[in-house]
């Protein structure tokens, strides 16, 4: 008789079990198997939650929201079909789910390949030490920009929607998203810098500070103001702020095919330290590599 049970829902205590499971995976794999959106879903109960228990003990978890799933299996319980059971249950009930695989790990690649999934999107993680960034300044002055106040919310959202018009998640950021994040650990309105022009936000740099690591959370410039160095000036201003807070390293995630952004970061002392892949079932990828459908995920880095 199989000791494996797979069931939907988040019974009392499950969120803590899942956090422990994710911490075990992070320890073994060197990368967190859940992203910010999944952590928010776990905290608020939104999205789909599927638990795998072995003799009552939580050994696997899968969650999905907005057309994309994340799944993880305890390091000591891998290669026994638990990942397969989670995937089969989830995609059996919700066909067409994509999968996130953080860190570009071998087991995830093997798993995805076995079940006929191929990467359709790559997020690159980049990092810079503060001295490496400072070395690229070469005497360039650092400008100061006003910080966010609630009165700037609409102007910020307008700029964000224009700057990320083609970005699946960031372009859809709402007032509630901004407020929820500003109330979360690591965020401070004093670390969200706005460049104003003619009463509008032309660009912004939203930083995150989780000691000792700083993050370029979102950097966006309105297309009408792009190509004139505003992105670099905002980047420098936010990095100077993070350095003043005590950051020694700053990280960020960027779409691998966003050439202007990856170039800006590469010339500001950042280098690639990891990659996250979004996989899709081969039959659902349209010719030319374009997604066969346009689903939005909640993830944003
Ligand atoms: C990926 C992961 C969920 C697989 O869970 P699992 O329970 O070990 O997977 P299964 O036992 O069901 O394996 C199914 C198949 O996946 C492939 N696979 C699994 N682990 C693999 C590995 N280390 N190397 C190569 N292929 C692997 C194999 O084809 C395997 O079939 P086989 O054992 O008959 O050869 C697990 O390794 C994990 O939690 N990794 C960290 C989180 C992560 O990367 N999630 C993203 C998933 S896309």
Q: CATH H-level name of the largest domain... which superfamily? A: Gcn5-related N-acetyltransferase (GNAT)
Using the 3D structure, state the CATH architecture of the largest domain: 3-Layer(aba) Sandwich
The helical percent reads 25-40%
CATH topology of the largest domain: Aminopeptidase
From the alpha carbons, calculate the radius of gyration and give it in angstroms.
Answer: 20 Å
Strand portion: 25-35%
Shape: elongated
Number of strands: 11
Measure the end-to-end span.
43 Å
Class of the largest domain in CATH? Alpha Beta
Helix-strand topology string: EHHEEEHEHEHHHEEEHEHE
Overall residue-averaged pLDDT value? 93
Number of helices: 9
* Count of all domains: 2
Enumerate the strands of the largest sheet in spatial order, edge to edge or round the barrel.
Answer: 1-2-3-4-5-11-6-10-9-8-7
Give a verbal description of the structure.
It is elongated and about 65 Å long. The protein contains nine helices and eleven strands. The chain is 32% helix and 29% strand. It folds into two domains: 4-115, Aminopeptidase, CATH 3.40.630; 125-274, 3-Layer(aba) Sandwich (Aminopeptidase). Helix 8 links the parallel strand 9 and strand 10 (249-255). It has an eleven-stranded mixed β-sheet, with helices on both faces. The chain is α+β, with helices and mostly antiparallel strands and 301 residues long. Bound molecules: coenzyme A. The site of coenzyme A has 23 residues, from helix 1, strand 4, helix 3, strand 5 and helix 4. Coenzyme A binds next to helix 1, strand 4, helix 3, strand 5 and helix 4.
